[in-house]
Amino acid sequence: MDKLFYERQLIESGCKFVCGADEAGRGPLAGPVVCAAVIMPYDDIIEGVDDSKRLSPKRREELYGEIISRAVAYNICRVEAEEIDRINILEATKLCMKRAVEGLEVKADYALCDGNMKLSFACPYQSIVKGDAKSYTIGAASIIAKVFRDRLMTEYDLEFPGYGFAANKGYGTAAHIQALKQIGPCPLHRRTFIKNFGF
Length: 199
Known about the structure:
Strand content: 15-25%
Largest sheet: 5 strands, mixed
CATH superfamily: Ribonuclease H-like superfamily/Ribonuclease H
Number of helices: 9
Number of domains: 1
Distance between the termini: 46 Å
CATH class: Alpha Beta
CATH topology: Nucleotidyltransferase, domain 5
Shape: globular
Low-confidence stretches: none
Order of helices and strands: HEEHEHHEEHHHHH
Structural class: alpha/beta
Helix content: 40-55%
CATH architecture: 2-Layer Sandwich
Mean pLDDT: 95
């Protein structure tokens, strides 16, 4: 599969800067949703860029360093649990994606976004289901978002011990839910997500 198929079409149509955008952390019980937008050069392709979920944590870390060092521009945004609870996770993800794309230092002519969301950007865009596996640029964004969020949750594990955030990254594992029931929620928990557990 040609992972530059979408990018090549856009560049041939006259776009100079095509950005990829993706999110990490829509499903967890705790922590922010994180979105990344990135514009990559196409004369310096990084081997191995793929859907971040297909890569080992070690490989993601290696690629993260390569991507941000070679990127034309990248931007990372987050929407915290409190805002997720206020506007819901779908709207929070869309807002986060908008901030990431529109906050790029180099303005994108076009955005390729993972998923099937209807978005509102200053530039035209296309949503691609499973785009992180189909588009090189979205794949790069998915790695940035995932690594940034994983690092953040590992840091939060020190600030809010007992929930296992370094291991579960805020997702609802059995151990995380058990800890939640024993010690109660912390400021990172999404109240709209944990209400099913009696909170």
